[in-house]
Specification:
The chain is of the alpha/beta class and 535 residues long. The protein has helices at residues 4-12, 36-41, 67-75, 83-93, 108-123, 134-148, 168-176, 186-192, 200-207, 222-241, 261-269, 307-320, 332-348, 367-379, 412-419, 439-446, 450-453, 466-479, 487-491, 495-504; strands at 29-30, 45-51, 58-60, 80-82, 97-100, 126-130, 159-162, 181-184, 209-214, 250-254, 283-286, 296-301, 325-328, 358-361, 384-387, 402-406, 428-433, 482-483, 509-511, 514-516. Helix 4 (83-93) runs parallel beside helix 5 and helix 10 runs parallel beside helix 18. Mean pLDDT is 89; it is low at 1-34 and 531-535.
Length: 535
């Protein structure tokens, strides 16, 4: 690592944004009382602090919501709404885009879906919800399905979950039922758009599309973000070509840990032009949470030269205290090695049966195995999960008492997402175990207060990178064809020049004022820049 990198990092994270980072303001931070784990760790603890609990800001459920929605909320035990949920409802009713950046476990999903369900029930609109991970897509779809089940037939909106785990025949059946809401990964939509020309259900869905939900918006960074922005452009084109209105689309973007929410929202939605002084701002930023925040304790240990052994001992101790939780490692091999060490620790402590309470979780597991692990956690058979970043995003796990973060995860965003898995309803414990061999781990071990106080990183990408635009132009030309006089409108000011180059290469063609192409250019787009697919 270059010597000046640490200094640059220090400057970048010197800014403070306590509320957005899920900890109360500094005046509310108090040293914790000596906890059992601190006594167990002894001199290994170099930092501990507690974020005191906050009370919720609740309001009555608006009585002008459709009665079936009010009844469904009551059936789930929801008698009041948080202030940010009310604000989101009002903004969407006014035709606004929304970026919602309240804390983890603050009810952001319900904030988005209340106005969406209202629009579906009252106007027969449709909604597309895009999630970056298959596990997150399935989790959020199940939560939404539970709510929809409480709306009586025949008014009940239909939901279709589409990921790479959904067999093609099942996808066709789900689409044939004319769903009002589709939840999917970006890659699934990327490939599905190629078949819109032959799919009456897709055409029907797109002609009525009004809402696009982008959850965990902070993950759309770099190449991933650029591809996501271009996918949105293609979606707008597909909506217009099928008789809908891209101008009336409303974007609802959710993230608890993004450092520049407004800029990111505008980049993703493509509505980043300068504001017209004669028109009100289209985007509404809601960052003040009305949800209660449980008490959370953060413990940081000295950097360790034997992370697996130290983490295994901590997990063993917490399990013996009757607690449940999750431990994050940076990669599949890391958690497999930790799992082997934990089993050896169980033998050493003559507690060989305890390993049955621990399971490992990573993205390439089959969907059946992933669901089995989550269900085991819910039933109490499994007490602790060793996970990669696959469970980092906002999946609602059962109430967990602790989250252990083994090694610096690469960003404050990732750290806070992982920390947010614990203490979502009751008090929680977060333990950060720095790795001695890592310069960044040592950096934060020396400045642990930054874990609480520093602002999350900015998300950035070039939505107009010529090579990316060229690839998505080719995809759009195969999917719907592109009106030649609207190249700039859909794909930016550099699009005409890029299209000319593609025509000269003989891969893009012009006929009857439209640009079209053949083949399967979709295979040339890697959404995550070589990090794998989550379709």
């Amino acid at each position: 690592m270059p010597p000046n990198y640490i200094n640059l990092l220090s400057q970048l994270i010197a800014r403070h944004d306590f509320h957005q980072n899920n900890f109360p303001e500094a005046s509310h931070l108090q040293p914790t009382a000596t906890a059992d784990l601190c006594e167990f760790l002894g001199e290994e603890v170099i930092y501990q602090t507690i974020a005191t609990a906050t009370t919720p800001k609740l309001y009555k459920i608006p009585q002008d919501l459709p009665p079936s929605i009010i009844s469904a909320l009551h059936s789930q035990g929801i008698q009041q709404l948080y202030s940010h949920q009310i604000k989101t409802l009002k903004a969407v009713r006014q035709g606004k885009d929304v970026i919602l950046s309240t804390a983890t476990a603050s009810g952001k999903s319900l904030s988005a879906y209340l106005p969406i369900l209202e629009g579906i029930l009252q106007h027969q609109f449709t909604a597309l919800s895009i999630y970056g991970l298959k596990a997150l897509t399935a989790d959020q779809s199940q939560k939404l399905a539970d709510l929809l089940q409480l709306i009586p037939e025949p008014a009940r909106p239909r939901l279709a979950l589409l990921t790479g785990d959904t067999p093609p025949k099942t996808r066709e059946q789900l689409l044939a039922a004319n769903p009002s809401i589709i939840t999917a990964t970006p890659e699934l939509i990327h490939y599905a758009l190629k078949g819109v020309h032959w799919s009456q259900p897709w055409q029907h869905f797109l002609s009525r599309l009004r809402y696009i939900v982008l959850d965990e918006a902070h993950t759309f960074n770099g190449v991933y973000g650029a591809n996501m922005a271009s996918l949105i452009r293609r979606l707008k084109l597909a909506v217009d070509e099928r008789g809908g209105s891209s101008q009336k689309l409303q974007f609802l973007m959710l993230s608890a840990t993004v450092g520049n929410p407004v800029k990111l929202a505008k980049l993703l939605s493509g509505r980043s032009r300068k504001r017209n002084i004669n028109k009100p701002e289209r985007l509404v930023w809601i960052n003040s949470s009305g949800a209660a925040i449980p008490e959370r304790q953060l413990i940081v240990t000295k950097p360790t030269h034997d992370a697996n052994s130290d983490v295994a001992r901590i997990i063993m101790f917490l399990l013996q205290q009757g607690q449940s939780g999750i431990c994050f490692g940076n990669g599949r091999q890391a958690i497999k090695n930790l799992w082997a060490t934990f089993k050896q620790e169980a033998v050493t402590q003559t507690n060989s049966g305890i390993e049955s309470q621990v399971a490992i979780f990573y993205g390439s597991l089959t969907s059946e195995r992933r669901m089995e692990i989550i269900n085991s956690l819910q039933s109490g058979t499994v007490k602790c999960i060793l996970s990669t970043s696959a469970l980092e995003a906002g999946i609602d796990l059962p109430q967990l008492d602790f989250a252990i973060i083994r090694g610096w995860p690469g960003s404050l965003q990732a750290f806070r997402q992982r920390a947010g898995r614990a203490g979502r309803a009751n008090s929680g414990l977060i333990v950060f175990i720095p790795i001695a061999q890592s310069p960044l781990d040592n950096y934060f071990a020396e400045r642990p207060e930054l874990l609480v106080s520093a602002e999350s990183e900015l998300v950035s990408f070039n939505a107009n990178y010529p090579i990316d635009i060229a690839k998505h132009l080719m995809c759009a030309a195969v999917e719907t064809g592109i009106p030649a006089n609207k190249l700039k409108h859909y794909f930016g000011k550099s699009a005409p020049q890029i299209a000319t180059a593609l025509i000269e290469q003989g891969v893009l063609h012009k006929s009857r004022d439209k640009l079209w192409a053949k083949g399967f250019p979709h295979k040339d787009v890697n959404f995550r820049g070589g990090t794998g697919s989550s379709t």
